[in-house]
């Protein structure tokens, strides 16, 4: 059929099964927005900032497993969205972000709201396109969705000049893709898989190192089976939280800079690292030369460039984690799980020596208590998103995650302002679960305008602000490594968060005791509208344990031991 | 990056489309890899172009370069050459007052010749292995070259 470029965008989104688009209109994308107005196949959620539109699409994608879609205009609309693209790129989140561009005839003339969008997005997307003819649009959009969700997922940016959205051309979406140069390697090499399983069988102290790739490839339940049949203990990265349930006996905990003592020690003592969809990030490994020093490495990853990038892999397996783990499950008879009993005991001793905990030794609430309490009250019924900073680490450490896609946070890029818009995306994708956003008094101001979106679209996100009147994580580093010179991190001057929420039509609570917190959370859940719970917490609490940047995993700063009250 | 760095020639076959060259060079600059030289031209009768990139780095870096290149969507193939024929061209402009027969003889030794003679200058062309191009440029120094252009290497696997 002969339709306009703008109509093609709509038809393509419908054909891809998109039910929600997050965006913000503007001059160059108006033709497409005109078609959005005329259709009723998908909902459009108008965020109040383009960055939030992309973060919301990320949250939607992470919670649902589908490709997230965001739409923005040219120039500042696009540049506002760049942080979202970069965030999705670092965390391998499949997105299609469509931006308007000035008409073809004006490109290169420094036209109003013109910027070289594909030039900017090139280094923070999996792929990008500048569409120069409407006849290419169906193919490009189809490729964009395909590239975003296959292989190592990632954001794809499609930049469409305004005249191309007006141009009439033939639309046919039922054409087979012909991407000769893009063929992701999904199936692992069977011989390598066999060798890896033999290495596992021979190891004395093997350790699963579970990464975010497991969540992306929907492999958590296969991984759970592999862990349980082999009886091999597991550590999770920040991005993999929820792969194993928090109460799984074989889950040691999160490893890395703020990982548990037992997890980091297990990684330091293991003789065989079984890395599944993990990329040996510097926040995980600490000092590379000391990381899992005496261990051989099995590395399963969809991205060949992740393998042996930082740590040499003795058993490299390029493939989709789900596919490879399914194959590994067929060979578990090689493995005798009772053999690892002494190793499991060693790890239990680590955990008993320095359990992951905190002291309730101040009058003020401890932020960790708040996280734990939400876990006790809501547990599996909530999806958890976070911003970036101390609260994020406490959420990762202390929330009792029970399932994959329950924890949505900005890992690789570490984007403050991610949590609230992401939570809106999560809620749009999974409305039956309560959406909690743990945030800080610093982060929440970096996208608080989304109160308006959440009120308008009835997305009852409960933002729990762990308020220490500090840019807490930076303050922690300043305390520990900069001789307590708290340069520009004191946030004593701050808004009235209750009034702020109310000004937008949400609800706000200010709490400083356990009873007040319980009451506020209970009411916020019941009232089912967007809420800020401003929790006054202990100002100088540090995230512990901590591996100082560049230090070895086994050299942790630990929580001071105290008799628990 | 304390490991030994070595010189490597990498050939990349890419789809001939807008901004593909930027994708390659952005990758190098963004990840801190070196480009010593880069040549690019379309492959006749195909929709592809061939880039020849001379780079340097440790074994791990070179491995990353080839893997990261592979990840780019329009990249069809990446060859990390071990056994190859590698040639580079150099054009040099000399004042006509220099000893032309000497210059001509040196060019001969490096697969070259005088390709242009003007009123004030002559231009020579040679094509040889990059190392030998270095030697040549050393040898002709005393003839006061006015301008030197090197093409960057092209290479084929043996």
Main features:
heterodimer, A: 565 residues, alpha/beta, Rossmann fold, 6-stranded parallel β-sheet, 21 helices, 20 strands, 36% helix, 17% strand, B: 158 residues, alpha+beta, Alpha-Beta Plaits, 4-stranded antiparallel β-sheet, 4 helices, 28% helix
Characterize the structure shown.
In chain A, helix 10 (220-230) packs parallel to helix 13 and helix 15 (367-377) packs across helix 16 (390-398). Chain A has three domains: 2-170, 3-Layer(aba) Sandwich (Rossmann fold), CATH 3.40.50; 190-353, 3-Layer(aba) Sandwich (Rossmann fold); 367-536, Rossmann fold (3-Layer(aba) Sandwich). The mean pLDDT of chain A is 97. In chain A, the strands form four sheets. In chain A, strands 3-2-4-5-7-6 form a six-stranded parallel sheet, with helices on both faces. A six-stranded parallel sheet of chain A has the order 11-10-9-12-13-14, sandwiched between helices. Chain A is 36% helix and 17% strand. Chain A starts with a strand and ends in a 29-residue tail after the last strand. Chain A contains 21 helices and 20 strands. With 565 residues, chain A is of the alpha/beta class. In chain B, a hairpin with a 5-residue loop joins strand 2 (37-42) and strand 3. Chain B is elongated and about 55 Å long. Chain B is 28% helix and 44% strand. Chain B folds into two domains: 6-82, Alpha-Beta Plaits (2-Layer Sandwich); 85-157, 2-Layer Sandwich (Alpha-Beta Plaits). Chain B is an alpha+beta fold and 158 residues long. The model of chain B has no long low-confidence stretch (mean pLDDT 94). The two termini of chain B are 31 Å apart. Chain B has helices spanning 20-30, 59-71, 100-109, 130-139, and strands at residues 6-15, 37-42, 48-57, 75-80, 84-95, 112-117, 121-128, 147-157. The interface between A and B is medium-sized, with 18 and 19 residues.
């Amino acid at each position: 059929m002969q339709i306009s470029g703008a109509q093609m965008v709509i038809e393509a989104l419908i054909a891809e099964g998109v039910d929600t688009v997050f965006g913000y209109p503007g001059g160059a994308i108006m033709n497409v927005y005109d078609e959005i107005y005329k259709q009723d196949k998908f909902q459009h959620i108008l965020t109040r900032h383009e960055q939030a539109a992309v973060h919301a699409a990320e949250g939607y994608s992470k919670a649902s497993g589908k490709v997230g879609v965001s739409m923005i205009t040219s120039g500042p609309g696009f540049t506002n969205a760049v942080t979202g693209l970069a965030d999705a790129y670092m965390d391998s989140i499949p997105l299609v972000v469509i931006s308007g561009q000035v008409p073809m005839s004006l490109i290169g003339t420094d036209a109003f709201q013109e910027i070289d969008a594909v030039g900017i997005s090139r280094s923070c997307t999996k792929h990008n396109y500048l569409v120069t003819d409407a006849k290419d649009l169906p193919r490009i959009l189809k490729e964009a969705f395909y590239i975003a969700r296959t292989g190592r997922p990632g954001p794809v940016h499609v930049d469409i000049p305004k005249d191309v959205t007006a141009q009439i051309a033939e639309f046919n979406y039922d054409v087979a893709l012909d991407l000769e140069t893009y063929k992701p390697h999904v199936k692992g090499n069977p011989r390598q898989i066999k060798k890896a399983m033999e290495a596992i069988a021979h190891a004395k102290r093997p350790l699963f190192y579970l990464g975010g790739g497991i969540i992306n490839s929907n492999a958590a339940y296969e991984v759970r089976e592999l862990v349980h049949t082999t009886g091999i203990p597991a550590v999770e990265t920040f991005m993999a939280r929820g792969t194993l349930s928090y109460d799984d006996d074989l889950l040691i905990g999160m490893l890395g800079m703020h990982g548990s003592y037992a997890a980091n020690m297990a990684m330091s003592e293991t003789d065989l690292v079984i890395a599944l969809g993990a990329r040996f990030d510097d926040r995980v490994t600490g000092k590379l030369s000391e990381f899992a020093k005496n261990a051989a490495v099995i590395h399963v990853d969809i991205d060949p460039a992740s393998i042996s990038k930082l740590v040499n892999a003795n058993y490299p397996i390029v493939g989709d984690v789900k596919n490879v783990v399914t194959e590994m499950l067929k060979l578990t008879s090689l493995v005798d799980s009772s053999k690892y009993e002494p190793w499991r005991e060693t790890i239990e001793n680590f955990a008993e020596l320095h359990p992951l905990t905190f002291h309730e030794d101040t009058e003020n609430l401890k932020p960790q208590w708040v996280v734990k309490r939400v876990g006790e009250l809501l547990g599996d019924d909530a999806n958890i998103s976070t911003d970036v900073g101390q609260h994020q680490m406490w959420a990762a450490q202390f929330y009792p995650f029970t399932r994959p896609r329950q924890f949505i946070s900005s890992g690789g890029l570490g984007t403050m302002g991610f949590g609230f818009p992401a939570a809106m995306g999560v809620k749009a994708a999974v409305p039956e679960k309560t959406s909690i956003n743990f945030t800080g008094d610093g982060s929440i101001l970096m996208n608080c305008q989304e109160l308006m979106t959440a009120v308008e679209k009835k997305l009852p996100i409960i933002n729990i602000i762990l308020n220490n009147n500090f840019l807490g994580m930076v303050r922690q580093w300043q305390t520990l490594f900069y001789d307590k010179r708290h340069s520009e991190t004191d946030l004593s001057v701050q808004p009235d968060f209750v009034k702020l929420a109310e000004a937008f039509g949400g609800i706000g609570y200010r709490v400083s005791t356990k009873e007040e917190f319980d009451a506020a959370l209970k009411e916020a859940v019941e009232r089912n509208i967007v809420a800020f719970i401003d929790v006054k917490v202990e100002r100088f609490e540090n995230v512990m344990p901590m591996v100082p940047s560049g230090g070895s995993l086994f050299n942790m700063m630990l929580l001071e031991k105290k008799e628990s009250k | 990056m304390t490991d030994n760095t070595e010189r490597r020639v990498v050939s990349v076959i890419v789809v001939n489309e807008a901004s593909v060259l930027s994708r390659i060079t952005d990758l190098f600059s963004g990840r801190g890899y070196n480009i010593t030289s880069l040549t690019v031209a379309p492959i006749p009768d195909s929709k592809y172009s061939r880039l020849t990139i001379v780079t340097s780095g440790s074994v791990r870096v070179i491995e990353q370069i080839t893997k990261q290149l592979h990840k780019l969507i329009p990249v069809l193939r990446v060859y990390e050459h071990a056994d190859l024929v590698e040639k580079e061209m150099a054009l040099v402009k000399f004042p006509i007052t220099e000893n032309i027969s000497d210059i001509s003889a040196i060019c001969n030794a490096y697969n070259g010749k005088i390709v242009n003679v003007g009123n004030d200058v002559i231009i020579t062309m040679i094509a040889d292995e990059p190392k030998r191009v270095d030697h040549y440029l050393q040898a002709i120094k005393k003839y006061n070259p006015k301008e030197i252009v090197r093409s960057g290497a092209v290479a084929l696997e043996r």
